C-alpha cells in the first residue's frame, strides 16, 4: 500500500507555520514523495533569530529543575510514540526498521542524558591568593549560556544527531535554530513536537526546513547567533567557518575510518564487528569502517571470512524486519559510489563481492589490491564499500591509517597490551577503539576528530560546556577582622 503524502509545517519560534513554496521529501527506496515541507526564506531566518533573542532570555532564566522537567518530558513523549518515530525515520531515510528502532532508543537516551547533565554544569573556585597582592580576593567561575545556537544536521541520523544538538543547548539555557537536512526533515519536526508537548516555552526552538544554500549563510553569519554546531561535509564546513565570523563552533566533518587487525586478534570477532561497522546504514556513517589493515599472516583468512559474512547480508525493503541494508539516500549518491568502485577496479583493484547498483541500492562491496592513492581510500566513501589491505606490522598499519586528511576514530584488534598502547599513542584520531571496529559510539562520550574531521567535541557534557561561556567572578574582601598573633 502506498503512503499518503503529508503536507508539513515548520516551527518558527514555537509556532507552526506554512509557506507558499514547498520542498518534496522523498522515500529513497521507492523514489516517491512522502511529504512536503515549507521552503524557508532569509526572511524566515531573520524572524527566527529575533524570536530566539527573546527565547534565549527565557531559556537562560528557566531554573535547572524546569529544564530537566522539559527534557525528561520530551524523552517520555518519544518513548510513548516510538512507533511513529521509527516509521518516520524508515520512510524518509536509508535506515531499516532495525536501525531506526536503535536510533529512537538512542535519541531517548540522549535527551535523558541532557536532563541529567543540566544539574551537573558546575563552576569552580579560584584561589586568588596564589598570587602575591591578591590575598584579599576570593573568586569562582560560572557557566553562562551563549544565547542563540544554530544547529545544522545531516541525513544519516535524522533524529539522534538532532537531539545531540538541541538537547544540550536547552539543558544549559540557550535558544536553538535548527536547520535539518533537506532529505530528512520529518524526524526533526517530530522531535520538535516532543519538546512542545513537554512544555518548552515559545521562542526557544525553531526548525527551519528548506535549502541550506538559500538560508544557511543568513543563519551562520548573523552576529546574534553565538554558536554554530554543524555535522556534514568538509567543504561545507570550510564555507561556514569563512562566513560565520568570530563565534564559537563545533564541527563534525566526516572521515574514512580505519580498523587494524593484528595476527593475534580474535578473527571471528574482528570479522563480525568490521562487517557490521562497514555496512550499517548502507555505509553512510562517519565512523563506519572504510579501510581495514590486516597483518599478512592472517590476511587471507580474514578476507575470506569477511567476504563470506558480507554475502550473507540481505539488501532490500527497509520496512522488512529481515533486511540488513536499505538504499542509499538517493540514486545520485548511489551512482557516485558505483563510479568510485569502477574507477578503483579500472586502476587495478579486485572486487571480491557486491558493488552492484539498482536505483538507490548498492550491494555491499569488498575490494582488495586497492592503491593507497585511490579516491576510495583517500576520500570519505559514505557508502557500502570497504577496502581490505595487507600490512607487515602494526607500525606500517598505523602509518597507513594516518596517511589521510581525516582523523575521527580508528579500531584495533589485538591481544597484545603493548600493541594497544602503541596504537593509542600513535594513531592521529579523536578516538581509538580497542578490540572493536571504528564504529563505536555511546551518547555520553566525547565525540569528534582531528585534521579535516572537525573541531570540538559532541557528547552531552562536552557539548554543554562548548555552548556556554565561562564567567569569572572575584570579590575583594575586608580582612581587617582577621585575628593576628
From TrEMBL:
Q: What class of enzyme is it?
A: oxidoreductase
Question: Which InterPro entries does the UniProt entry name for this protein?
Answer: Ald_DH/histidinol_DH, Ald_DH_C, Ald_DH_N, Aldehyde_DH_dom, ALDH-related_metabolic_enz
Q: Which domain of life is it from?
A: Bacteria
Enumerate the UniProt keywords alphabetically.
Oxidoreductase
Reaction(s) this enzyme catalyzes, per UniProt: (2S)-3-sulfolactaldehyde + NAD(+) + H2O = (2S)-3-sulfolactate + NADH + 2 H(+)
Tell me the ranges covered by the Aldehyde dehydrogenase domain, including all copies.
16-473
| EC number of the protein | 1.2.1.97
- GO MF annotation, one: lactaldehyde dehydrogenase (NAD+) activity
State its role.
Part of the sulfo-TAL (or sulfo-SFT) pathway, a D-sulfoquinovose degradation pathway that produces sulfolactate (SL). Catalyzes the oxidation of 3-sulfolactaldehyde (SLA) to sulfolactate (SL).
Q: Which family does it belong to?
A: Belongs to the aldehyde dehydrogenase family.
Name of the protein = 3-sulfolactaldehyde dehydrogenase
Tell me which species this is from: Alkalihalophilus pseudofirmus (strain ATCC BAA-2126 / JCM 17055 / OF4)
